[in-house]
C-alpha cells in the first residue's frame, strides 16, 4: 500500500512529529508498504526524530511566515502555489491514501485535491478550546470560518480523533477514535526512589508551567529535598518569563528548566513521579510514556486527555486550578512508598494497551477499507 503523510515540518521536537515517526516507521518496516512524507517548510533541516531509511521525503518549500497569521497577506499569497505543488506531487506519487497530520493551511484544501484519493485528517488538539470561540464569535468572518471548517471536515473520508470524548465535538459522522501509540516500552522501570519529579512537553501557555511553579513553591516549603525537572522547548520569551518566575520565587535550585531532550525515557526512569498542569489536552503521549516507565501520575483533570489515561489506580486527577491540593498530592505520593509503587505497577500495565502493534492494526484496517472503496 502506498501511504502519504502530510505535515508542515519534522525538524522541531513535538508530539505530532514524534507520533508520526513511530507510525511511519512501523508502516515502512512492512514490505508491502511504501511510505512518503510531504513537508511544506522543512528548510533543508534534519528531522529531529529517527525515520526508517525506506521513507521518502519531499519538501514543497512553501515556507509560510510562522510568526504571522495564516490570513496575513504574506501567507495568503503562498496558498495558490501550495495547492498547485500538492496536487502535482500527489498526482506523481499516486498514493492509496493521504493522511494530513498537522493543523495548518493544507487542512482546508487537501480534501478537495484529487478527490479519487482517500484522505484522512488527524486531530492532535482538543476541540474543547473552540467552544467559547464558536459560541461567542466576535465577527461574521469567524462565524463563517467555523462553518467552513465544519464543511471541510465532512469532505475527508475519515477524521481520526484521539479519545471518545473528542468525537462528540464533530458534526460530521466520519470520525474514528485511534489513540496515540507508545513510542517506547522499556525493559526496566523506575525504582521510584529518586527525589526528582518530572514534567515534559511543549513549553507554552496552555501547559500552565506557571501554575506548576506555584505548586512547587508550596512543595518546596514542606520538603526542600525534592527537585522538579521540566523538559521541553518553546518560544524564547515565554521560557525566559518562566525562568524569571523561578528566580523571583528563589526556586532555582529546585525547579530546573532542562530544555529539549532526545532521552526522555532515561529521564523518566530516573524520576519518581510525573506531573502535568495543562489547561487542556487531547491525548498526551507523554503520560503513556511515563506509565510505560512505571511512573505514577498527578495531573489536572483538564479536558480531555488525562482522564482517558489516568485513573485512581495509576495516579491522581486534581480539580482545575487547585494549586494547594495538587501540591499536597505530590507530597503525599512521595511520602507513601507502598502506594507509589502500586500506582507505578498499575501504570505500567495500563500502558501495554497502547503498544504500537494493536494501535497500528486499527490504522492498517482503516487504510485497507479506504483502499477498497477507492
From TrEMBL:
InterPro entries: Glyco_trans_1 (IPR001296). GO terms for molecular function: glycosyltransferase activity. Keywords: Transferase. Residues 190-348 form the Glycosyl transferase family domain. The keyword Heme does not apply. Coiled coil: none annotated. It comes from the Bacteria. Pfam families: Glycos_transf_1. The keyword RNA-binding does not apply. This is Glycosyltransferase involved in cell wall biosynthesis.
